[in-house]
Design brief:
With about 375 residues, the protein is α/β, with parallel strands linked by helices. Helix content is about 30%, strand content about 15%. The chain has an 8-stranded mixed beta sheet, with helices on both faces. A 4-stranded parallel beta sheet has the order 11-12-13-14, with helices on both faces. The protein has a two-stranded antiparallel sheet with strand order 7-8. The radius of gyration is 28 Å and the shape is globular.
């Protein structure tokens, strides 16, 4: 026996008034639909359809693209070096990972599209200002920055110091171009959005995400030229990890960042020039580099020195002379990890100790410190606190 069905009614007897149930039901549904649509917009207490309500609950994440390997393209899918960085637009990066739309409402902006070795102060300032503008809006819950890995840690640390929000900022890259057989970029990007959309990520400062690890922008550094697990936090550990599509946080950075940072770039259109000089045997021959820095109008020098920021007697003379002519000198270390502590000789020579910041991050902090002051004691305090 067939099931009873509104659309399968028996025929009416001859002479009876014919009733078309299908038409009645269709008309009723159409009327209800029209009334519902008319009620959605005018009234604050209107009922939102379930699909739209679920969409509204998802966080809004903005992806800001700067180029790099994650947007790289090569002639062959087995090529993982010698590719073209920044060949793929942010829109295509987003289209390549449609699963991100299940995590958040995604939109993108192209800040620049280049190798990270071409990142400069102008781009840094534009990026930092744009992130602050976005995060000040109630319509943006977090930001993901795609970036080349060569200088990724520098940009991330810069953002750690200048972003004025506790909303998540995640800097992500890849070690293989998007065209490679086993490109790591798509999953890294997915995970970055996952972290940026997580409530647990709030207030942790700028983060670096690659290879399923969540790192503090202050602590993580690139340690290998080509391997996927290149980004490590050797001394102080990671903030957390991603396992089974879920972020797990275990640590927090105790150094000042984001909301607690004193550095404000809102009115800056340039940053003070700071260079890095490398320390090595026989470096007593390169005193001319300090002289050249003075003549070029450089405002500060970070010495990537051996060991505990140890410098030769000849370098000490050259650096002290430069310091007397207005340059701020910071002792960092080329070792890769560990603390460069303040020594009694620093008081004599008026040098700054970089604490645990590597040379490239010490340069970022010194640039921002010089936008605030030339007082050496205050600058040393910045290195002690940030």
């Amino acid at each position: 026996m067939p099931e009873d069905n509104f659309f399968n009614q028996p025929s009416q007897q001859p002479g009876e008034k014919q009733v078309n149930t299908r038409k009645i039901l269709t008309a009723a549904l159409l009327t209800a639909s029209i009334l519902s649509a008319a009620c959605v917009l005018p009234f604050d207490n209107a009922v939102i359809p379930a699909a739209h309500a679920q969409e509204a609950k998802k966080p809004n994440i903005k992806i800001l693209a700067t180029g790099g390997t994650i947007a790289g393209s090569a002639a062959a899918n087995t090529t993982t070096t010698g590719y073209t960085s920044g060949a793929i637009s942010v829109d295509n990066l987003i289209k390549a990972v449609p699963e991100m739309q299940n995590l958040a409402n995604i939109s993108g902006e192209q800040i620049t599209n280049a190798s990270s070795t071409d990142m400069n102060d102008e781009i840094l300032l534009a990026l930092g200002k744009r992130i602050n503008e976005l995060l000040a809006s109630k319509d943006v819950d977090g930001v993901v920055v795609t970036h080349g890995t060569s200088t990724l840690e520098e940009t991330a640390y810069f953002l750690n110091l200048v972003v004025k929000s506790d909303k998540p900022v995640v800097v992500v890259g890849s070690m293989r171009p998007a065209t490679a057989i086993s490109a790591d970029g798509p999953f890294n990007l997915y995970n970055a959005v996952l972290v940026a959309a997580s409530k647990e990520a709030k207030g942790r400062g700028a983060m670096i995400l690659l290879n399923d690890r969540i790192g503090s922008a202050r602590e993580v550094t690139k340690t290998n030229t080509a391997m996927l697990d290149t980004f490590k936090s050797a001394e102080h550990g990671y903030l957390g990890v991603l396992v089974g599509g879920k972020p797990y946080f275990y640590n927090a950075s105790l150094r000042k960042h984001t909301m607690n940072s004193e550095f404000d770039i809102s009115k800056l259109d340039k940053l003070p020039a700071v260079d890095i000089l490398y320390g090595y045997q026989n470096s007593d021959k390169y005193g001319y580099l300090y002289e050249a820095a003075v003549k070029a109008g450089i405002k500060g020098i970070v010495i990537a020195a051996p060991g505990n920021g140890s410098i030769s007697k000849a370098t000490q003379i050259s650096a002290t002379d430069a310091q007397k002519k207005g340059l701020v000198i910071v002792r960092s270390s080329r070792v890769g990890s560990g603390v460069v502590n303040r020594l009694s000789s620093d008081d004599t020579n008026k040098f700054i100790a970089a604490d645990s910041l590597n040379p490239q991050k010490a340069r970022i902090l010194l640039m921002l410190a010089l936008t605030k002051t030339n007082d050496l004691q205050k600058i040393q305090k910045y290195f002690d606190e940030y």
